[in-house]
Amino acid sequence: MTTLLDVKNLWVKFPTRNGIFDAVRGVSFSLGKERLGIVGESGSGKSMTGRAILQLIRKPGMIEADHIALQGQNLLNLSEKQMRSVRGKQISMVMQDPKFSLNPVLTVGDQIVEAYRLHNKASKAEARAKALEMLEAVSIRDPERVMKAYPHEMSGGMGQRIMIAMMLIPNPEILIADEPTSALDVSVQGQVLSIMDRLVKERGMGLIFISHDLNLVSQFCDRVLIMYAGRVVEVCQADKLHEAKHPYTQGLLGSLPKFDAPRPRLEVLNRDPAWREAPSVESTS
Amino acid sequence: MSNALKIKDLNVYFGDHHDLFQAVKSASFTVEKGSSFGLVGESGSGKSTILKALTGLAPQWEGEMTVAGQQLGLKRDRSFYKTVQMVFQDPYASLHPRQSVDQVLSETLKLHGFSDINDRIEALLKDVGLGPAFRFRYPHQLSGGQRQRVAIARALASEPQILLLDEPTSALDVSVQAEILNLLSDLRAEHGLTFVMVSHDLAVVSHMCDQTAVMRNGEIVEIISIEDMRAGKTAHDYTSQLLHASVNRVA
Amino acid sequence: MSSQASSLHAWLTSETPTSRRQARWAAVYKGWLSLKSNHMAMAGLAIIIALITVAALAPWLAPHDPFVQDLGNRLQPLGAEGHVLGTDSLGRDILSRLIYGARITLYIVALVALIAPIVGLLVGTISGYAGGWVDLVMMRITDIFLAFPRLVLALAFVAALGAGIENAVLAISLTAWPPYARMARAETLTIRGSDYISAIRLQGAGPLRIITKHIWPLCISSLIVRVTLDMAGIILAAAGLGFLGLGAQPPSPEWGAMISEGRRFLLDHWWVATMPGLAIFTVSLAFNLLGDGLRDVLDPKDSSS
């Protein structure tokens, strides 16, 4: 498989009053044209990993790594200006809540057109045509109307589809989706995910799917990294997640209530301090 | 008289005359004493609004609500709050940021007219699995799961018979969710509580409840026992859809 | 650090306090530690403490009687013998007058700082929590007060009540409360809808208890910050009234009145007006610095531990 992105020994550090806090501790993985899931609980460093790839860690946070190579080019050596052209054009990111990602005072159409023209030399009419095409691609029934609408007039699912349309217009090689469906209802989640899946496949993109939802990731992704306390504790095939070996992964799975397998009590995760200290597992794709 | 709660033709409205919005449309259901009843639906289906109307937090309602044989009027008195208590969704928002665990619990106990406050606080903390070390901590010194335990302790302080649970674990990690759900099951068995649990998560409701109402757009489309639901014996299409979506997450 | 002090530090910074008293002191101590790390705020606090000390010890610190006139010795320059900051047009020692004036300044500041925020807090929280027509009436009254320029309104009040320090304080307070009311109301509106207020309502708590025990503690910290930031304005307003002859009356050594007197000699004897001006400037700045620091410590939105 061709490797799109290779991350080696990634650390994200935050200086605090009581010394340095490591949010991500030596994470390595590579991404091909696949759907890679990153799961973990809050504070596991999964979102930080996604943001660190795009160098979206706010000061005073620091990113350190041997390399973050996008098709052989080390992103760490790029200037902020060069990074800006990587963001969006080569790697896009979809966040959890579309309400916070869209500008409330601009119409949806204006924002998509602007996003397109930021990375492509195109006339307004061309960009508009492209935007309409993209909105259709994310299964929005009446794209003309949606183009003229403001973000607050959109439902959550609609907003997230618009975000995906916006992020995919410049044809990036990699899409990072950080909990893209957590704010949505289950029925809408399915739609949004299948749209994202279709587009990623059609375009031969790599997808990094960050989520806290083990069932979702095991159904949606090809490969899964399980993170705990800033480290990768286990890497496995998504469809074999239920055969996971690490006690943390097993514990997480055991703690989920299951619709079809009722039991009187849920398993409670006993956290072993040793999990924290064990080195990150390297992924082999 | 084994009904803990009976709701009949309940309508709930928000807003004023100019733009009135009906959040719940003629909802009816009964909850037996000691049972656990679920309210499932997607966001905006009106499931939480029923709890708000019940507790008096949404004052614009019409219909009949009966709690432990007492019909509810517009005002709720102390005895109502001694019978019915609620646990809120977000433990980060339901604790006063400037009050320690001790302050929260002692004020609640005082309001309900108890005098042996020290002993009761210790017993409550023990009940929800927090040691005495937590007593004088402030919310910012607690994790999400610990906060929710404090919120549960507060709800239990008046020794209620009915506990309303408004998505009590949706803001928590799954491993913490398991702890809280186990705790709630234990408390229900121990104190003989009646639960009404609102959730968007069918797996959680099926784990906790005996029976559930499925809501959509403010209406109850179906009331179904969990066994029937597991067996796929749904009467309404929407219930089957919801079921399908929560088992097969990727459409 | 002695072992006693370090054990006190450990007691105060413990993550697991064992008594109500310890929990309360630990919260205070944490605020103090974070204020202490802000050097500008500490500088402001130092100046204010110095001011309070000077005011308290005025009779011992002042080299001369602030009221004794010595016309043969009038308008002495800075550094004149026996008069470090010179003398004014009636030969009174400026340094002594500044030292005694600190008392008046503190008196005004303390009274206004007590009256205005408390009135504002009451009006704002009741208005915000009650809503409906109570809110409407109270906020329109607030708007009427806000519609006048502050000093002009204060002037009108003093003109009606008669000149003097007490009336000046009253006038400034009457014009200072509306911004506090607005702020308290805005905070109340956001707090009112929160789950923890719903939760205490479900325990059967009445509006009075909710406002005083649950809403006030959250409003007060931002009010304190606002008051310290407004102190400068209050001192200036008091000085302004003094300057216009409507505040403290001669021969009282109020700083604004001193500037007013010195104004006539500004070109030839600049220090007479400048020294009290510098005093007002320093104290205003000190309150502003402290207010800025307190904002960082007391902001309830900041939940970092």
TrEMBL record, chain A:
Compartment(s) of residence: Cell inner membrane
Keyword ATP-binding included in the entry's annotation: yes
Keywords, ordered alphabetically: ATP-binding, Cell membrane, Membrane, Nucleotide-binding, Transport
Membrane topology category: Peripheral membrane protein
GO cellular component: plasma membrane
SUPFAM superfamilies: P-loop containing nucleoside triphosphate hydrolases (SSF52540)
Domain ABC transporter: 5-254
MF GO annotations: ATP binding; ATP hydrolysis activity
GO biological process: transmembrane transport
Membership in a protein family: Belongs to the ABC transporter superfamily.
PANTHER family: DIPEPTIDE TRANSPORT ATP-BINDING PROTEIN DPPD, OLIGOPEPTIDE TRANSPORT ATP-BINDING PROTEIN APPD
Protein name (record): Stage 0 sporulation protein KD
Encoding gene, per UniProt annotation: oppD_1
From TrEMBL, chain B:
Role: Part of the ABC transporter complex GsiABCD involved in glutathione import. Responsible for energy coupling to the transport system.
Limits of the ABC transporter domain: 5-242
GO CC term (a single one): plasma membrane
Chief site of localization: membrane
Keyword annotations from UniProtKB, A to Z: ATP-binding, Cell inner membrane, Cell membrane, Membrane, Nucleotide-binding, Translocase, Transport
EC number, UniProt record: 7.4.2.10
Subunit record text: The complex is composed of two ATP-binding proteins (GsiA), two transmembrane proteins (GsiC and GsiD) and a solute-binding protein (GsiB).
Protein name per UniProt: Glutathione import ATP-binding protein GsiA
Cell inner membrane is among the record's keywords: yes
Subcellular location as annotated: Cell inner membrane; Membrane
GO biological process, one term: transmembrane transport
Pfam family, one: ABC_tran
Molecular function GO labels: ATP binding; ATP hydrolysis activity
Membrane topology reported for the UniProt record: Peripheral membrane protein
Natural source organism: Thalassovita autumnalis
Presence of keyword Phosphoprotein: no
Catalytic activity of the protein: glutathione(out) + ATP + H2O = glutathione(in) + ADP + phosphate + H(+)
Record family assignment: Belongs to the ABC transporter superfamily. Glutathione importer (TC 3.A.1.5.11) family.
From TrEMBL, chain C:
Cellular component terms per the entry's GO annotation: plasma membrane
Bilayer topology term: Multi-pass membrane protein
InterPro entries found in the cross-reference section: ABC_transport_permease, BP-dependent_transpt_permease, MetI-like, MetI-like_sf, OppC_N
Keywords for this protein: Cell membrane, Membrane, Peptide transport, Protein transport, Transmembrane, Transmembrane helix, Transport
PANTHER family hit by this protein: D,D-DIPEPTIDE TRANSPORT SYSTEM PERMEASE PROTEIN DDPC-RELATED, OLIGOPEPTIDE TRANSPORT SYSTEM PERMEASE PROTEIN APPC
Family classification: Belongs to the binding-protein-dependent transport system permease family. OppBC subfamily.
NCBIfam families, alphabetized: Opp2C
Protein name per the record: D,D-dipeptide transport system permease protein DdpC
Gene assigned in the entry: ddpC_1
